[in-house]
Amino acid sequence: MTVVVAYKWAANPQDASVGADGAVDWSRARAALSEYDPIAAQVARNLADTNGTEVVGVSVGTSALSGSMPSKSAMSRGMDRGLVVADDSVADWNLTQVAAALAKLVERVGDADIVFTGEGSIDENAKMVPALLAGFLGWPAFFDVAAVEREGAGWRITQNIPGGSRTIEVDGPVVAAVATDAAQPKIPGMKDILAAGKKPVESVPAAELGIAETSAEVTGRSRPPHRERAQQRYEGGGAATELAAALKSAGLV
């Protein structure tokens, strides 16, 4: 049994800008570990410690991914080693190709039987990769996962659902996209970062994986239509009660 975390080194959208035609300019955006991935890594680390096994990080990105900073950022989050595709040829890959490559990396781990991902990536946040990855592996996928425990040859998964939670028992390997409140990630200290620099991160050439080409052409872009904000003022002694009722009616509280 090996616990795997799929992570992404991605451009931060806070540094991006949107042109008049709706196109996003990422040229000034700095790359960082996707913000939900540390939560997935912490859940993976906790599970691995409970079961006495290791955590392997897998990722797909350009050649920058094999640099010291991306490696230390990921490994300092509790991963024991990494297996990545760090190749500039993947720059134009779509999510299907990325998920296919991640599946190939998971298969190379050998005895992996659970893969954790974050809720979404910091840049695209499409939330498609966990399902695509599971499809390529032939495993079931679960989203909004709050907790995972080993149960025989499978897993007991606690999943957030509207109005509460549910517990599912499943046999065999799974892909689990963790909820944002699944764990409080540990902030790496200097000791963690220095130790991360000594952890092995193996880079696999993209061509070696034999990923099939898939086409997805952007046919147009546009900004969402401008909408006037609703403005309602509540005054008098019952203003607070009226505001609370209006917010509840709108589903905001």
In short:
The protein is an alpha/beta fold and 253 residues long. 26% of the residues lie in helices and 27% in strands.
Low-confidence blocks of residues: none
Name of the CATH class:
Alpha Beta
Query: Helix content range of the residues, please?
Result: 25-40%
CATH level-four homologous superfamily name: HUPs
Widest beta sheet: strand line-up: 11-10-9-12-8-1-6-7-13
Principal-axes shape call: globular
What is the end-to-end distance?
Answer: 42 Å
Largest sheet: 9 strands, mixed
The CATH topology label is Rossmann fold
Helix-strand topology string: EEEEEHEHEHEHEEEEHEH
Average pLDDT metric: 90
Number of helices: 6
Q: Please give the domain count.
A: 1
Radius of gyration: 21 Å
- Secondary structure category: alpha/beta
Instruction: Give the name of the CATH architecture.
Output: 3-Layer(aba) Sandwich
Strand percentage lies at 25-35%
The counted number of beta strands is 13
Characteristic key phrases:
alpha/beta; Rossmann fold; 27% strand; 6 helices; 9-stranded mixed sheet; 253 residues; 13 strands
